[in-house]
């Protein structure tokens, strides 16, 4: 009567099947039994017989079993039979494990690399939900353990490097597009209602009305070319602080043919920390990830991977949200320049980084770190400039802690507090200071602090004459990215 | 696996449905309510095949709704551990692939995909053997074996494997 003992010998799957079926039916779905028992058709002698038959495991039993499902299900399991059945189930599982265990290398304990719906993805056993990181954006109920993530990253990395690609994580709002709620639109923007593009062929348009979300969305100029070109060099993710529905809708607009993102859309619902974005849900090694985002503090742990973007404010509500009291691009009926806008500039920078990473570095491919490359490429932007600040920092302020100072140094410029002939740029808010006058007298560049910020966003030294220091103090009311 | 079983349900019916069509109304409401749902006990209710009996209606206090106990025969689908299923691949990624057998979601991790199949990224990600003869991608049909199931109140999750004899692609959309 012991299938458990015999089973290794005649391990035909029919035995397993019968035993397991029994187990499943008696243990898992007692409910069904209840329901069926109420029909009052069970009889214990027949029951025992059936059980014995199962236990003796004649292979021809299977047919009968299957044909006889109905009666089988009508069995009322008594207590000891239940136990027996459970034993069977266990033995059956063990065995089935051995069966497919080119997979799990014999009986050794499975490490449970991850779970799907609360079951181990490797052995199918129930596992505790707590361990690992959820990957809800890939599929509901999927979790992966840390070791598995590391393993996946490593294998993926090799694959990716072979294709000469890196990872690129893209933010949506203010980076690739700008959205506004319909009820936040101003009177001056109403002309847009008649200009929205058809949702039938998304790939042509750039201004969309999304009735379902009650939103209007404007794609940033150049974004289609940008994605097209970037997809050659990067495996791309979307990572947004918007909710899942919004994120997926935007991904549809940006990638109607699903060739760029393919399920790699991460929304705030999928992050592991509130109000923070993290690379832990990105299945790529941090040393190969670049991030494009307009919000620096969202990436507190990954500043080295970040390429900061100039914010794209198309709608008035978006300008107000960030405290700009100026006309938005939509109200001025203008837009960013397609070929010289922020995305075009960043694409150039990305190309350069990609080129440096794959074609210029000497050491082995595995040891390369894109963060280092990012630093070096950035350092070239203001190489050879020596900058002195005037009236930019408060008097008591530790100068080299100021963010402008830091940006300038990241861009490769030398910053100083001492005036000397080697200084090339004086950054000032006022014309009247000593240093400003010195600059004019010695024919040095006298520029507004915004010159540094713009240079930082555009990844190239901006023409100094576009950033004059004006007489009036209050002149900061130009839209941030107007032409 | 499919089962043909008898289930019972208390149906509440609005008085406007009373009249000579009461029974038809009851049945159509039952179908609308039950078909396609999932219960943790029985699995997915695929279709109602017949009405066994309709009990006496009971007026509910205060609402006017009437409750009828209805016994009905139906076909239910419930996957079991060890069962072999045929499923359609819905998503392929570096962790493995997801497939659907009707309403059941099945995940096959790359631990349980034969070692000679390797993941290929791209706009049509897939698992391919080194000689390129077998390819698993979206919409491929695969035969797989269930190694774990979890039946929730509304959804059934399964873990599957194709690392065994006679399992794997049975119909490739690319070559079909």
Structural class of chain B: mainly beta
CATH uppermost class of the largest domain in chain B: Mainly Beta
Give the CA-CA distance, first to last residue of chain A: 87 Å
Low-confidence stretches of chain A: 1-15, 27-106, 473-483
CATH fold topology of the largest domain in chain A: Rossmann fold
**How many domain modules of chain A?**
4
Oligomer: heterodimer
Arithmetic mean of pLDDT of chain A: 76
From the spread of the alpha carbons, the general shape of chain A counts as: globular
Structural class of chain A: alpha/beta
User: Main interface pair?
Assistant: A-B, 54 and 41 residues
Overall pLDDT metric of chain B:
90
* The named CATH superfamily of the largest domain in chain B: Nucleic acid-binding proteins
Strand order of the largest sheet of chain A: 10-9-5-11-12
What is the fourth-level CATH superfamily of the largest domain in chain A? HAD superfamily/HAD-like
Share of residues in strands of chain B: over 45%
What can be said about the biggest beta sheet of chain A?
Answer: 5 strands, parallel
Instruction: Assess the beta-strand content of chain A as a share of residues.
Output: 5-15%
Keywords (chain B): DNA-directed RNA polymerase, Nucleus, Transcription
Domain RNA polymerase Rpb7-like N-terminal (chain B): 8-64
Subcellular location (chain B): Nucleus
Function (chain B): DNA-dependent RNA polymerase which catalyzes the transcription of DNA into RNA using the four ribonucleoside triphosphates as substrates.
Account of the 3D structure:
- The complex is a heterodimer of chains A (483) and B (176).
- Helix content of chain A is 36%, strand content 12%.
- Chain A has four domains: 3-99, no CATH class; 114-144, no CATH class; 169-357, Rossmann fold; 380-466, Rossmann fold, CATH 3.40.50.
- Chain A is an alpha/beta fold and 483 residues long.
- In chain A, strand 3 and strand 4 form a beta hairpin.
- In chain A, helix 12 packs across helix 13 (370-379).
- Residues 1-15, 27-106 and 473-483 of chain A have low confidence and may be disordered.
- Chain A is built from 16 helices and 16 strands.
- Chain B has 176 residues and is mainly β.
- Chains A and B meet through helix 2, helix 3, helix 7, strand 2 and helix 8 of A and strand 1, strand 8, strand 12 and strand 13 of B.
- Chain A: It comes from Turnera subulata.
- Chain A: Residues 377-469 form the BRCT domain.
């Amino acid at each position: 009567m012991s299938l458990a003992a015999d089973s290794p010998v005649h391990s035909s799957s029919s035995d397993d099947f019968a035993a397991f079926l029994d187990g499943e039916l008696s243990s898992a779905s007692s409910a069904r039994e209840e329901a069926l028992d109420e029909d009052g058709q069970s009889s214990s002698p027949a029951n025992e017989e059936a059980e014995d038959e199962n236990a003796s495991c004649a292979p021809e039993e299977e047919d009968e079993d299957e044909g006889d499902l109905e009666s089988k299900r009508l069995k009322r399991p008594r207590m000891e039979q239940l136990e027996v059945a459970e034993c069977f189930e266990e033995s059956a599982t063990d065995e089935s494990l051995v069966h497919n265990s080119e997979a799990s290398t014999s009986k050794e304990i499975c490490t449970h690399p991850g779970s799907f719906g609360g079951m181990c993805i490797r052995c199918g056993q129930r596992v505790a939900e707590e361990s690992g990181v959820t990957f809800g954006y890939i599929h509901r109920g999927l979790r992966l353990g840390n070791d598995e993530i590391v393993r996946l990253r490593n294998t993926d990395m090799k694959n990716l490097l072979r294709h000469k690609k890196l990872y690129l994580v893209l933010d949506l709002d203010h980076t690739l597009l700008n959205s506004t709620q319909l009820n936040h639109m101003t009177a001056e923007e109403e002309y847009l209602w008649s200009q929205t593009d058809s949702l039938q062929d998304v790939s042509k348009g750039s201004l969309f009305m999304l009735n379902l979300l009650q939103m209007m969305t404007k794609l940033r100029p150049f974004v289609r070319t940008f994605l097209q070109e970037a997809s050659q060099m990067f495996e791309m993710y979307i990572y947004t602080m918007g909710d899942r529905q919004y994120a997926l809708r935007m991904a549809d607009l940006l990638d109607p043919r699903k060739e760029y993102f393919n399920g790699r859309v991460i929304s705030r619902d999928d992050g592991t920390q509130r109000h923070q974005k993290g690379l832990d849900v990105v299945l790529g090694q941090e040393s190969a990830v670049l991030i494009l985002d307009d919000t620096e503090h969202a990436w507190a742990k990954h500043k080295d991977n970040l390429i900061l973007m100039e914010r794209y404010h198309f709608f008035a509500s978006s300008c107000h949200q960030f405290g700009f009291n100026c006309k938005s691009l939509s109200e001025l009926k203008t837009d960013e320049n397609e070929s010289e806008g922020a995305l075009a500039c960043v694409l150039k920078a990305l190309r350069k980084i990609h080129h440096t990473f794959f074609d210029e570095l000497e050491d082995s491919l595995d040891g390369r770190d894109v963060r280092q490359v990012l630093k070096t490429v950035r350092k070239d932007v203001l190489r050879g400039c020596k900058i002195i600040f005037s009236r930019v920092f408060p008097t008591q302020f530790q100068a080299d802690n100021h963010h402008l100072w830091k940006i300038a140094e990241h861009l490769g410029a030398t910053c100083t507090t001492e005036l000397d002939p080697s200084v090339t740029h004086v950054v000032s808010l006022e014309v009247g200071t000593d240093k400003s006058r010195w600059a004019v007298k010695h024919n040095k560049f006298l520029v507004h602090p915004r010159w540094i910020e713009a240079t930082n966003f555009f990844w190239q030294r901006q023409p100094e004459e576009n950033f004059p220091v004006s007489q009036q103090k209050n002149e900061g009311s130009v839209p941030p990215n107007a032409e | 696996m499919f089962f043909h079983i008898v289930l019972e349900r208390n149906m509440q019916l609005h008085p406007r449905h009373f009249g000579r069509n009461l029974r038809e109304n009851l049945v159509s409401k039952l179908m609308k309510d039950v078909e396609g749902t999932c219960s943790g006990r029985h699995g997915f209710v695929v279709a109602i095949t017949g009405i066994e009996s309709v009990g006496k209606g009971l007026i509910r206090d205060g609402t006017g709704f009437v409750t009828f106990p209805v016994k009905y025969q139906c076909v239910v689908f419930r996957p079991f551990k060890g069962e072999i299923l045929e499923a359609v691949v819905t998503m392929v990624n570096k962790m493995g692939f997801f497939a659907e057998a009707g309403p059941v979601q099945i995940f096959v991790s790359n631990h349980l995909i034969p070692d000679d199949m390797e993941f290929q990224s791209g706009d049509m990600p897939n698992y391919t053997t080194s000689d390129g003869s077998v390819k698993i991608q979206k919409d491929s049909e695969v035969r797989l074996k269930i190694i774990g199931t979890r039946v929730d109140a509304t959804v059934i999750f399964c873990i599957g494997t194709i690392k065994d004899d006679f399992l794997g692609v049975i119909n490739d959309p690319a070559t079909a």
